[in-house]
Inverse folding.
């Protein structure tokens, strides 16, 4: 699947990117009927089932038994015989991070380029037989629920639930109370967007029901504080100390407002400068998951060979699990982040880096204008040699 042209997102239908972000993003649900029609088979149910046999891939099997609140949760990897022993109804299996292993699923992220890539987390795909479901629940992040095959009825509440209230003693976190206000049956190509904490419950209607969940990254405040502070401690200079040459007379037992203000300023300079935060964020959001193997895709190439290699190619493709981002600086400069590393670029190389970071699949005609620049050729050679990008012929 190739990338869509930017500033035009047919997935949203008649809604513009500006309208979606202003009216729906993190505010209220949106049903997009026929958003992608006809819907391409980017992964088959059989291929997805095969991924559950791999110990390197996280998968789950959820079975709803007879009676109220009778649920089973089993974690992969599974054996092929596992699926032969399952009941005819009310089970589903889920595979996490499919985009990190399947190129066509990874390329599917280009469909959602109206959201910054650094806000995207991963793609989970579920397969269910008739009446298969995972119960009524909430997610702590934005999610696009894409119906890929079969039918699923989605029931949602139109207001978020901010306090956790789960049924106790279950292997899955299900809501104690769920009163749906909307019901929709989604068919292939339909998409339901849900902001964080909106209760939802999806039930398969018939067999071979497959749903693609495009989840967004929502780091907790604790995660952000811990990451920023840890990074500051690593970079801090132990010889730098608190000083107060402007100390004024005061009571000996008092911690003055001036002292508090001075410490606040010190912390702000260490943790809250734009440069420091953008540096931490750039490295943090491009740091690959531990299950990503970029070395397996790396092909050493000299800068002088890049133009000839791309001459007969269709596209440059970001490797599954590879993450790119950039922060704009002064004039034509950017900080370019590639899988946790940073490179400062300017001129044509900066423009090329932005082109690469703004798409998963980059058609080669968009790369051609940069092939006469030595720095651009060096950048492309580096990305190909480290496995961050691969050539699609």
């Amino acid at each position: 699947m190739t990338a869509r042209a930017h500033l035009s997102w047919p997935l949203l239908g008649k809604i513009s990117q500006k309208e979606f972000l202003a009216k729906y993003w993190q505010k209220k649900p949106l049903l997009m009927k026929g958003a992608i029609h006809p819907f391409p088979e980017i992964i088959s149910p059989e291929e997805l089932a095969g991924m559950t046999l791999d110990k390197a891939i996280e998968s789950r099997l959820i079975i709803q038994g007879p009676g109220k609140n009778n649920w089973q949760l089993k974690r992969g990897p599974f054996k092929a015989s596992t699926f032969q022993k399952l009941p005819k109804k009310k089970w589903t299996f889920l595979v996490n991070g499919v985009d990190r292993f399947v190129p066509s699923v990874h390329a599917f992220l280009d469909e959602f380029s109206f959201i910054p890539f650094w806000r995207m987390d991963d793609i989970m795909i579920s397969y269910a037989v008739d009446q298969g479901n995972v119960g009524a629940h909430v997610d702590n992040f934005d999610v696009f629920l894409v119906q890929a095959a079969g039918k699923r009825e989605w029931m949602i509440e139109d207001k978020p639930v901010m306090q956790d209230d789960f049924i106790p003693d279950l292997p899955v976190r299900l809501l104690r109370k769920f009163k749906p206000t909307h019901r929709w049956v989604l068919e292939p190509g339909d998409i339901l967007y849900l902001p964080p904490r909106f209760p939802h419950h999806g039930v398969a209607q018939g067999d071979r029901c497959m749903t693609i969940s495009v989840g967004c990254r929502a780091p907790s405040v604790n995660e952000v504080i811990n990451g920023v502070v840890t990074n500051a401690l690593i970079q801090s200079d132990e010889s730098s100390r608190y000083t107060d040459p402007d100390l004024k007379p005061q009571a000996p037992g008092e911690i003055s407002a001036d002292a508090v203000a001075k410490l606040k300023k010190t912390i702000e300079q260490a943790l809250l400068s734009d440069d420091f935060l953008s540096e931490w964020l750039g490295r943090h959001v491009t740091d690959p998951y531990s299950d990503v193997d970029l070395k397996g895709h790396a092909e050493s190439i000299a800068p002088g060979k890049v133009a000839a290699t791309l001459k007969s190619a269709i596209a440059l493709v970001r490797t599954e699990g590879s993450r790119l981002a950039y922060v704009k600086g002064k004039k034509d400069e950017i900080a370019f982040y590639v899988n946790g590393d940073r490179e400062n670029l300017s001129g044509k190389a900066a423009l090329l880096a932005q082109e690469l970071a703004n798409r998963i699949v980059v058609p080669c005609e968009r790369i051609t204008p940069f092939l006469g620049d030595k720095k651009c050729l060096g950048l492309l050679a580096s990305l190909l040699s480290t496995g961050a990008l691969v050539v699609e012929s």
